[in-house]
Amino acid sequence: MARSALLNVMVTAVLKAGKGLARDFGEVQNLQVSLKGPGDFVSQADMRAEKTLHAELARARPGYGFLMEEGGAIAGEDEQHRWLIDPLDGTTNFLHGIPQFCISVALERQGQLMAAVVYNPANDELYTAERGGGAFLNDRRLRVAGRKRLSDCIVGCGIPHLGRPGHGKFLMELRHVMNETVGVRRLGSVALDLAYVAAGRLDGFWEDGMSPWDMAAGALLIREAGGFVTDRKGGDDMFGRKEIVAGNEDIHRALLAQLRKADG
């Protein structure tokens, strides 16, 4: 698969950060036996990955702004371009030695998502997309699954955990969705879940309470794989409303309908 210069820059940065995360993941697995646990180590791994991504991308595209999970917003001289970065999506999985985590990087130009990379260093799966250029897993072109009915589908979701609001609301949503589907999955990494929708592994996905860096790369992957990604109202204000619903045209519509039922 031929990549553009822009996508090559992103892939180079992500693979470099991924090598460090893969090494740190091996250390975390060893740390599981300790009483104290690897929490501090994981936060350091997160910061190291973000530092690598920032350095590589800033050198390749000086002047672009950044919005990062750890480092926050950094304005650039070029106000039209902004990197959206999650250096370790699936931190809890990483912490527990579960190989379901990723690096997520997207480029935004004047509010439009232009390019995306999602990479899982644990299994060397690299998802890439450019606006108008399709979505790929390594060198394989991606298409969303073609199922038409929720009753044939596996749907991914996020579950509010300890310290997060909305437990009761989520349980109502889960009741409506699981009654209509083959199964509901919580895999623990939003960006990977969305990449799985693009790859047809999951038929749909929904979650609330997210940040732009959680959704950006995965949203472009799905759109470039022929899928639909919106907020719960069916609009494009995912970042503002901090929510996402995804799937092919039919499953996306059906998920929206079930979530509206849950809202009463």
Distance between the termini: 47 Å
CATH superfamily of the largest domain: Fructose-1,6-Bisphosphatase, subunit A, domain 1
- Please state the overall shape, judged from the principal axes of the Cα atoms: globular
Structural class: alpha+beta
**What is the percentage of strand-forming residues?**
25-35%
Instruction: State the low-pLDDT regions, or none.
Output: none
Q: How many β-strand runs?
A: 13
Number of continuous helical runs: 8
Helix content: 40-55%
Summarize model confidence as the mean pLDDT: 93
Instruction: Specify the biggest β-sheet.
Output: 8 strands, mixed
According to CATH, what is the class of the largest domain? Alpha Beta
CATH architecture identity of the largest domain: 2-Layer Sandwich
Q: Could you give the order of strands across the largest sheet?
A: 2-1-3-4-5-6-7-8
> What letter string, H or E per element, gives the SSE order?
HHEEEHEEEEEEHEHEHEHEH
List the keywords.
single chain; 264 residues; alpha+beta; Fructose-1,6-Bisphosphatase, Chain A, domain 1; D-Maltodextrin-Binding Protein, domain 2; 2 domains; eight-stranded mixed sheet; five-stranded mixed sheet; 8 helices
Note the topology:
Layout: H1 5-31, H2 39-60, E1 64-68, E2 72-74, E3 78-89, H3 91-95, E4 102-109, E5 112-120, E6 125-130, E7 134-137, E8 140-141, E9 154-157, H4 167-178, E10 183-185, H5 190-198, E11 204-208, H6 212-224, E12 228-230, H7 238-241, E13 243-247, H8 249-263
Parallel strand pairs: 1-3, 9-10, 9-11
Antiparallel strand pairs: 1-2, 3-4, 4-5, 5-6, 6-7, 7-8, 11-13, 12-13
